[in-house]
Each structure stands twice: as structure tokens, then as C-alpha cells.
Design goal:
mainly alpha; membrane
Length: 47
């Protein structure tokens, strides 16, 4: 990417940054959902 114009490099970098932030947000939301499912489960997991 050394010889590319700066607009293309910027577009590639910002796309990657956006996708990483988006994936982190999905993991946080889904992680909270899974936590709530296990927390309020009808079956007790006390072994």
C-alpha cells in the first residue's frame, strides 16, 4: 500500500477500524444476553 494514494489507504484503514468496533459491540451485546440467559435459567447449575 506504499504507492497507493492516501484516500485509498484511509478508506481501507477506516473500514477496518469500523469493522473491529462493530464486532466488539456485537460481542458485548450478545455476551450480556448469554449472561442473562444463564443467570435467569430455570435449570440450576449448582454441582
Amino acid at each position: 500500500m506504499r504507492d497507493e494514494v492516501s484516500g485509498l489507504r484511509r478508506a481501507v484503514v477506516w473500514t477496518g477500524v469500523f469493522l473491529i468496533i462493530y464486532l466488539i459491540a456485537i460481542l458485548l451485546v450478545e455476551g450480556e444476553y448469554i449472561y442473562q440467559v444463564y443467570k435467569n435459567a430455570a435449570v440450576s447449575f449448582d454441582f
